[in-house]
Structures are given as structure tokens and as C-alpha cells.
Amino acid sequence: MWFRSYRVTFSCLNRIKTYRTPWKRLYSTSQTTIDSKELKTFLALAHKWWDEQGVFAPLHSLNDLRVPFIRDNLLRTSVSHHPGKPLSGMRILDVGCGGGLLTEPLGRLGASVTGIDPVAENIKVAQHHKSFDPVLDERIEYEACSLEETVDERAESFDAVVASEVVEHVANLEIFLQCCCQVLKPGGSLFITTINRTQLSYALGIVFSEQIAGFVPKGTHTWEKFVSPEKLESILESNGLSVQTVAGMLYNPFSRYWHWSDSTSLNYAAHAVRASAQDQLEPAESHLKGGTEAVQANASSHPSVHEEQKN
């Protein structure tokens, strides 16, 4: 009887162990999120990051939407904040930071920001640009590396991770998002802006913007790498994140302005939150309770136990 009870107990504990370690690295170190073709594309454009009228003009303009989107959602999770520096005390990882177009505004809001990019030339441009502002020079640090290279050293280190206009360029989306989850603190936020995988995004984002109008250099995007909000949410939920907001965005290439939209058929922004420590414990406690009840049920169903209870 007791052998059977212990066996049930150990089975229960094994289920808890499986649940409570979703952040264990599940990929081989030989796997990478970096696409060498993408590296060459952005290496050729590295010197153009801070040209507000050049090929990165849409990203400069996108700050009008993505900076408030990040700020406002982070403030909803913050108990207190400093006037004028609302993100003070927060640690943010800007993945695929390029020349620092988004990194710098987040630093000006008071956050301590780490910008990483696999293109070393991008990091040189970003470091040079922030050196002109002593305040940013203290709040921002840049590193030329991939996201997966930071996981071991900085697991659960950041209050927020930002991957803006990045996921459509990575070689392995699942690994990339898993790494984003791993470097987040419990309760931390992940922010993503990207392009939906629709016929409209192919027609406007690639055929028109790249091949006809030339608003974007040819070969910048690959339609097969675009990801729908539904697929993105599915991957994030499997890694312990809950999607809070998905909002459509539209860009007018003639006015060079972005605006929010009810439609996510082209571009969209997503905000997801990693489960807090308490949220992670509750299902485990539920497993433990279920296992304990099973042990008690098995024990009480044994004839010798019934006989002892009668005595």
C-alpha cells in the first residue's frame, strides 16, 4: 500500500518539476536566431541609421507610436514613477537595436537600457551617437551580440524586452521568442512591433514598397518570415507569457507618418507579460494538492486501512 502511495507522490512531484522549469534552455547551442543574409543587408545600411530622410525614415517616425505604447503599458505595472523620468529604475533590453533609434528615447524616459545587435557596425554607430549626450551615455550600454548569447548571463534580469521590427528578420522565431521570455523577470513585459503575414502585407510591404516605389531597399523583407498575431500569441503563451494588447498600425509613405488602426492586416504592436512568481506557483500547488488527494484516495481504498479505521 505504501509503495503505491510513494509511487503516486513521486509521480506528482515529477509533474510539478516539469511545470516549474519552463525556462530551461531547450535548444542546442549550435542553433542561432541570426540570418547571415539579413546581417549583410543591415551592414550595408549601417551608416544611414540617423538620416531621418533616408531609408530608416519610417523607423524614426514609428517612435511617435512605439515609445508611448511601451511607456504607458509599463506605467500600468509600476507602483510609482518619477515625474519627467517615468521609466526611472526600470531595466530594458532593446533587441536588434540597430543604431539606437528606439534605445535613446527609452533612456531619456529614465530607463537603464541595454541595446544589443549582431551587426557590430550598427553598435559602433549607436555608441557614437549616444556619446554626444552625457545623460544617455550613463543610462545606455550597447553590445554587439545575439540574443541567445545573453541568456545565460542575464536570465530574468530585465523589467522589459523590446523587439521592434526585428522578429521578421530572425532565422528561428521560436528560439528567438523563447530567449526573450528567459531574460524577462517574472511579471516583466515584452513589446513587439512587426508585420502580419497577409496577402495585403505582401502586396504593399514588398511589391509596392520595395519593388515599385522604392520606399524600402529591395530584399529588406521576406514575406515568409512575417508572423500573424495569432501565431505570435501561440508561441508566447507556450513560453509562459500572456498577450495583453494587440494594436494595428498603418504607415503613410507619402506623409511619412504612422497612426493606430483597428486593422492588424499590415503592421501591429503587441504587449505580453510573463507570469509572476505567484502565478507560476499556483498551478504547481494545484498539482501537489491533486497528488496528495490521489495518495489519500489510494491509501483509504486499501482493505487494511478500512479495517484499521474500524478498530
Please explain how this structure is put together.
This protein has 311 residues and is α/β, with parallel strands linked by helices. 44% of the residues lie in helices and 19% in strands. The protein is built from 11 helices and 8 strands. The chain has helices at residues 2-20, 36-44, 57-75, 103-108, 120-130, 134-139, 173-182, 199-212, 229-238, 277-301, 303-310, and strands at 91-95, 112-117, 140-144, 158-164, 184-195, 241-252, 257-261, 267-274. The chain has an 8-stranded mixed sheet. Strand 1, helix 4 and strand 2 form a beta-alpha-beta unit. The longest helix has 25 residues, at 277-301. It is globular and about 50 Å long.
SSE topology sketch:
Elements: H1 2-20, H2 36-44, H3 57-75, E1 91-95, H4 103-108, E2 112-117, H5 120-130, H6 134-139, E3 140-144, E4 158-164, H7 173-182, E5 184-195, H8 199-212, H9 229-238, E6 241-252, E7 257-261, E8 267-274, H10 277-301, H11 303-310
Parallel strand pairs: 1-2, 1-4, 2-3, 4-5
Antiparallel strand pairs: 5-8, 6-7, 6-8
Helix pairs in contact: 1-10
Entry keywords:
311 residues; alpha/beta; eight-stranded mixed sheet; 8 strands; globular; disordered N terminus
How do you describe this structure in short?
By secondary structure, the chain is of the alpha/beta class. The chain has helices spanning 2-20, 36-44, 57-75, 103-108, 120-130, 134-139, 173-182, 199-212, 229-238, 277-301, 303-310; strands at 91-95, 112-117, 140-144, 158-164, 184-195, 241-252, 257-261, 267-274.
